Amino acid sequence: MIRFYENRNIYFGISIAIILIGIIALFINGISLDIQFKGGAILKYAYNGEIDLNNVDAIVTNTLAREVSTQITTDLVTQQNNLVLNLAGNEGLSVESQQKLEEALKNEFPDAGFVLSESSIVEPFIGKQFLRRGITAIVLASILIVVYVWIRFKRISGLSAGVMALVALFHDVLAVFITFIVFKIPLDENFIAVALTIIGYSINDTIVIYDRIRENSMLDRKIPIEDLVNKSITQSLTRSINTAIAVFFSIVLVYGFAQYYNIESIKNFALPMTVGVVSGCYSTICLAGPLWVMWQKHKQKSQKAA
Q1: Residue 21: which of 268, 275, 241 has the closest Cα?
Q2: How many CB atoms lie within 10 A of CB 219?
Q3: To which H or E segment does residue 84 belong?
Q4: What is the percent of the chain with per-residue pLDDT over 70, rounded to a whole number?
Q5: What CA–CA distance (Å, rounded) separates 1 from 237?
Q6: Has residue 151 got a pLDDT over 80?
Q7: Please, is 82 exposed, middle or buried when counting C-beta atoms within 10 Å of its C-beta (0-12, 13-18, 19+)?
Q8: Backbone φ, ψ for residue 32 (5° rounding)
Q9: Which of 48, 45, 66 is nearest to 57 (CA)?
Q10: Of 47, 67, 44, 74, nearest to 261 (Cα)?
Q11: End-to-end C-alpha distance for the chain, whole angstroms
Q12: What is the pLDDT of residues 89-129, one digit of tens each?
């Protein structure tokens, strides 16, 4: 039986160190919002042959002095290559700026035959509304999880179990957020998608351990609460780690595929997802259970004092 509760200060120290790294990265890199949250312009150019996205980034940045994310898409019907430029900012793009950018692209890639096929503007208030709704979805999911755990695990003080599970989930979402900051990934719809996915993955793992705690508490009513949690986590350890390894390598393969074909949107989803999977497994095993024991021991101490 592994002494998870007795080693809780080590786990708390690791989490605090990760948070400090995130704070330092936040001051150094700042928060970068993508066009979905910040507003801006989207330009789509049809072209022929091959182009270098790194050169395109440099051309757009030098020409317009604005942040840009680039992506190459291919029409499955016509096999036409398209260059998609997402220009974040609080305003659109004037006709003069579009013409200036098109000339710069044509000068750099004279054989590509760039033709502007689509131009649209994303208003800042739409991005703010999307961000607000995404955060609302995360908060609502968290509240419903606490309510479910509260009802499902009344035998082991469901409210405290739900709150500690929520703390572990907050740790996982924070780990995902720190990944976006450290690797300078603009916050976009991928952040909301990864956060909600990790919340579902992590709470599923936590509920398995809570269920084992409940079963063991029925089998041995006199076992000390810290031994109860240590025993339950140890019994579920192999399952949790094997599940995390399977999901982790699946996401790594997705990231490798996106890296090979330079699909930026998938890379921006897969990289934080891998970190979230590791964090979800870690918080389930090392944080949720020990935190619940601390709550219960404090509660017992308060009742004795009363």
Answers
A1: 275
A2: 8
A3: strand 81-88
A4: 95
A5: 10
A6: yes
A7: middle
A8: -105, 120
A9: 66
A10: 74
A11: 34
A12: 666 677 888 888 888 888 888 888 888 888 877 766 556 77
Contact (Cβ atoms closer than 8 angstroms) between residue 226 and residue 177: no
DSSP per-residue letters across 168-203: HHHHHHHHHHHHHHHTTPPBSHHHHHHHHHHHHHHH
Phi, psi (rounded to 5 degrees) for 51 = -135, 160
Q: Could you check whether 8-35+126-300 and 40-122 share the same CATH topology? A: no
Q: What is the pLDDT of residues 191-243, one digit of tens each?
A: 989 998 999 899 999 999 999 999 998 888 888 999 999 999 999 999 999 99
pLDDT bracket for residue 15 (50, 70, 90): very high
CATH number of 8-35+126-300: 1.20.1640.10
What residue has token string 């609502």? 140
Locate the domains of the chain by residue range. 8-35+126-300, 40-122
Question: Which one, of 275, 295, 61, 84, lies nearest residue 176 by Cα?
Answer: 275
| Tokens representing residue 256 in the block | 């490798």
Does 40-122 carry CATH code 3.40.830.10? no
pLDDT at 1: 81
Say if CB 240 and CB 285 are below 8 A apart: yes
Tokens of 130: 């999307």
The total number of residues shown for the chain amounts to 306
Report the interhelical angle of 264-283 vs 225-261 (nearest 10°).
170
What is the β-pairing status of strands 68-74 and 115-122?
unpaired
- What rounded mean pLDDT belongs to the chain? 87
- Rounded CA-CA distance 95/240 in Å is 55
Comparing 302 with 199, which gets the higher pLDDT? 199
Residue with tokens 């979230």: 276
